[in-house]
User: What shape does this take?
Amino acid sequence: MFYSKLKKYVFLLALILPFYAHHAQADINVFACEPEWAALTRALGGDHVTVTSATTALQDPHYIQARPSLIARMRRADLLVCTGADLEVGWLPLLLRKSGNNAVQPGQTGYFMAADYVALLEKPAVLDRSLGDIHAAGNPHFHLDPERLLKVSIALAETLAKVDPANQAEYQKNLATFTQQWQQATQEWQQRSQPLRSRRVVVSHNSWVYLESWLGLNQVATLEPKPGIPASSAHLSKVLTSLNQNPADMVLYASYQSDKPARWLTEKTAIPAVALPLSPSADETLFEWFDRLINQLLSVNG
Amino acid sequence: MRKAFPIAALAMAQLFSTPILAETELESLKRQLDQLKKDYEQRVEALEARLLKTEATAQQVITETRNIAAAPVRQNSVAPNAFNPAISLILDGRYANFDQDPEAYELPGYSLGGESGLGSRGLSLGESELVFSANIDDKFYGQATIGFHNDDGATEVDLEEAYIQTLGLGGGFTLKAGRFFSAMGYMNEQHAHAWDFADAPLIYRGLFGDQLKDDGLQLVYVAPTDTFLQVGAELLSGSYFPAAGEQNDVGAATVFANIGGDIGIAHSWQLGLSHWQANDIEGRTSGGHSHGGSTTEETPSFDGDSKISALDFVYKWAPNGNPQNKHVKFQFEYFDRQEDGAITMLNSGPPLETSTYDGDQTGWYAQTIYQFQPQWRAGLRYDRLDSNNRGSDTDVLGEAGLDNEGHTPKRTSAMIEWLPSEFSRVRLQYNRDRSYEESDDQVILQYTTSLGSHGAHQY
Assistant: This one.
């Protein structure tokens, strides 16, 4: 009979499974939710890690579909490195539950949420969805702040060492190198970005608060009427009126976002629009990416 | 005796009170001293505690400062309700306009069961759902879905899902136990509010009464391969439509396999094969062919074996793999059901009308959804069913609704949706429904909203 046999196998497997041991591989497989964490893990892990990023700089990390390929990648991950703070709430929990991978479940060593190690800005005092798709834990786009990124790197190096104790010394060495180079680069960026201080910016989504507070930019308007709600013509005309009275220096939007509202505003006001990469591209290092960000900003504010 | 007791009590009181009176002054002095001692002790204790606390705080500040300088610590915010499960409430309402009487609805060649049907005309509330979910501990995840729906003016509460699922099994294995939607087909596992149309495909309506759920055990294995590959099996009680009857242990079972992946960055796909089987179904009742005017309704009841095989395919496209602004989703499902047994018309006769039954039913649907702007989606769907059922008494099959009368049910649907945010949706749908001989033009205006926690959606 078809299912008396099936029953036997299922029960047998259910009995054996708790004793099934997962064999770790020589290299550690890292599932990064966003390219910035992939780049950071590569910098700290060196040759000992194989890193894939679930998203690219051209995808919105808020809205990713739990694609079969991502479940397959999660299945083989030894370490999960994500932003946290509910940025990936629409897809990550599902990938985790479907993966059948115990190493990266919440509470395990292989579950690393960067937001757990930094203080977030814009933690809302009032939680109400009429205010848009707000993040209860605060603004999750903190990877644009070099200091917070450095904090995350310290915690990530520790986690790497826990997941792969054999190469602990290597990770500490890589961290020391990264820290030294990063601090040096941060100083250089800060000097180079002097002309950007107090510049007035209009942003598409509230993705840039950390960059703004680091570079001393002054955010004067948002194209989205509420977080996660696309720009409406009524709201845009309001923004336009306020900009006519109080002009801004540039319009910033993430390269994965529709450029229509920003272009429209540029046409009306001649304020230059800048499509900034919210994340590094596939093989870019964090240094190269930050360089590119600063250069792009300087190109319209030279 | 009655008098003696109070007298004795008085004497006793006298006896004991005398020494107490004599010692009162000394006692009160002693007590005062004790009180003083206690007071001072308490004060000293309080002072010591304060001192310790100050020291601890100072130590904490020092540690914190060190931590800030050295390694960042994990920050945990603890709110009183932090451990409550994630709760989301789905509210759904609709206005429906049907040309034909929805009570007259039938699918020739299929005996309708479960909740299947068109629903009511005019304004009505759809299915409201309350979903609770959380990690139970580091080993299990749990979820329960409670559905509320209208049934002839009364609100019915239905426990749609209540299951636990392992988190910590590892090795690619996941075990689920409880009541859940079966992994048969593609759409079956999704909640109705996540569907792209206001109603179920005809084949789901015909075979499952809209959706297949059961109580049981599900085991899934995901292979450690680049291409997504999973196989799984379910052992089910077999007490829900389209199975039925009391079973000693396993009344129905499924096996399924899925394979899927990406093509480049913009395309993704998934292919699934699944098989459901229930042997020894006893007394599966369903709605038959309606008889105008008859007072006692004859209900068809099936006893026998049932097998369903399914093929499903999903393909998605989004420019740069970013579905937020624009995306296309195509889905196709094909089902085949083979049944072998007997049909009895309950409440018929005497004598009771019966027939042998050899059922052969197939059906498919294909649909495409196109999100052409961030808040707008449009979709097209085509449904088609076929059947070739045989039995010893064709009249009985006809009364049971299993004779297709030479008709192949078909339906064409179109819809457009406006999504003001991730949490709300307004949908206008039109169906050209040729399920039975009379064509029906159907218009449905529906809203679906999600309150509370942010749910994750399946691929």
